[in-house]
Amino acid sequence: RVLILDFGSQVTQLIARRVREAGIYCEIIPFSADADRIRAFAPKAIILSGGPASVTEAGSPRANDVVWTLGVPVFGICYGQQTMCEQLGGKVEPGETREFGRAFVEVKDDCALFEGVWSIGAREQVWMSHGDRVTKLPEGFRIVATSEGAPYAIIADDARRFYAVQFHPEVVHTPHGDALIRNFLFKVAGLKGDWTMAAFRAEAVARIREQVGSAKVICGLSGGVDSSVAAVLIHEAIGAQLTCIFVDTGLMRTGEAEQVVTLFRDHYNIPLVHVDASDLFLGQLEGVSDPEQKRKIIGRLFIEVFDGEAAKIGGAEFLAQGTLYPDVIESVSFTGGPSVTIKSHHNVGGLPDRMKLKLVEPLRELFKDEVRALGRELGLPHSFVGRHPFPGPGLAIRVPGEITREKLDILRQADAVYLDAIRKAGLYDEIWQAFAVLLPVRTVGVMGDGRTYDYACALRAVTSVDGMTADYYPFDHSFLGHVATRIINEVRGINRVTYDITSKPPGTIEWE
Ligand code: XMP
């Protein structure tokens, strides 16, 4: 187990990703963690992340001194290097040359960190982002590489196994960065990369059994990857003590509700309550055109319906949820100011307190791609595991303005044609999310010899790592032309197709 102390860098999660890709379990905790918490974790190695503060400022973050006395290897990155030096008796000063972005380091000496990767005399590309720099080394350290703005770009104390770098090895802009991190884990810390999804599955099953005992568990399925993987894993642990509830809002895509029912009931034989609540949802959404209003109505109805079904099942003590690691990392924020609500996401979460359910969250330690790997390990079909994310409010936020059954039907058909074309072109897995939006606009067209006056639709496809930022997907024009023709030919009610080339920011992924 590796512990990552977070000093608030934007890319701390990437350090965790690199460690886990090496097959080693790790967790991120705030830099302010006290000695007991760090000891209790029993880390085999510690990594100190970067961060936005300056060690030269009074009151800037420091690691608890227990980090230096546990006898385990420590790797400092950027701010982590500076605080390591400062805390161990070295000196850090504001730099004359600030380095942001691509920089080069010159390798001056051998070091376990780049054994088999870099050699003495080499000039290697790294990614820097710092203003301050180390100007005096603590006792026991030597310089192994330098850069223009950072004479102490890589430093090492081999006796204590303390290593530190001024750049960011966890980002892809440092081409051999992951190899450096692996060397720290394998060569310096002597760890084995044996944390696999098969091992996680076995451990998770044991933990769920221990937590739940003989109690009943209910789980809301959304049709998405997270809740599906959580349900299958819990079912493996406790069998028929688990009942799944699938609330069909009538806002799903073509065939989606049927797929969920078939997979869970027929394939996995998991007890499933399928509630067709589409009349209720569409009825309450009638005449509503404000996006936040739609989200609120859908969120409220979902909870009401779920709650009602849970009461019918009766006696459940636990609620299973597909919460992921990025939702539970205690983030370190130095900005302080209030953040603006762009959209009230995750609105299908909180159940009423009176239900008094305890939570089972077996995916709390996993990143999204690890959940996918676990899904494959559990035998979920590829089509399910590799699915693009789908928002809780479903197609309601892909029909800007007022929703009607007619509009939803048209959108479903267009979306199905679009996704079919993407799959056939072999592009589905390259794209984070792709979907059609039915615009609340009718336009004039000509088909055959007649005039048409039908809806316009927009196609959207983006690449993204986490949904926080996104780029539009650069389809070939010939592909776009082909999809547009198919949609207009195959979908009655649409006579014009546009492609959305907005990135996020300034746009958002969904239109509402
Ligand atoms: P935006 O549109 O904010 O979307 O760029 C980022 C990601 O979140 C999804 N999304 C939602 N998910 N409830 C959800 O559960 C919502 O209300 C919601 N709105 C957007 C969106 O599909 C994308 O993956």
How would you describe this structure to a colleague?
This protein is an alpha/beta fold. The protein has three domains: 2-188, Rossmann fold; 197-385, 3-Layer(aba) Sandwich (Rossmann fold), CATH 3.40.50; 404-499, GMP Synthetase, Chain A, domain 3 (2-Layer Sandwich), CATH 3.30.300.10. It contains 15 helices and 18 strands. It has helices at 12-21, 35-41, 66-69, 79-87, 177-188, 197-212, 225-238, 256-267, 278-285, 291-313, 325-328, 368-377, 382-385, 405-424, 477-490, and strands at residues 2-6, 26-30, 45-48, 74-77, 91-107, 123-136, 142-147, 154-157, 162-165, 216-221, 242-248, 272-276, 316-320, 358-360, 433-447, 450-463, 471-472, 494-499. It has a nine-stranded mixed beta sheet, with helices on both faces. Strands 12-11-10-13-14 form a five-stranded parallel beta sheet, sandwiched between helices. Strands 15, 16, 17 and 18 form a four-stranded mixed beta sheet that branches. It is globular and about 80 Å long. ATP binds at residues 222-228. InterPro entries: Class_I_gatase-like (IPR029062), GATASE (IPR017926), GMP_synth_C (IPR001674), GMP_synth_GATase (IPR004739), GMP_synthase (IPR022955), GMPS_ATP_PPase_dom (IPR025777), NAD/GMP_synthase (IPR022310), Rossmann-like_a/b/a_fold (IPR014729). The active site is at 78 (nucleophile), 168, 170. It is an enzyme of class 6 (ligase).
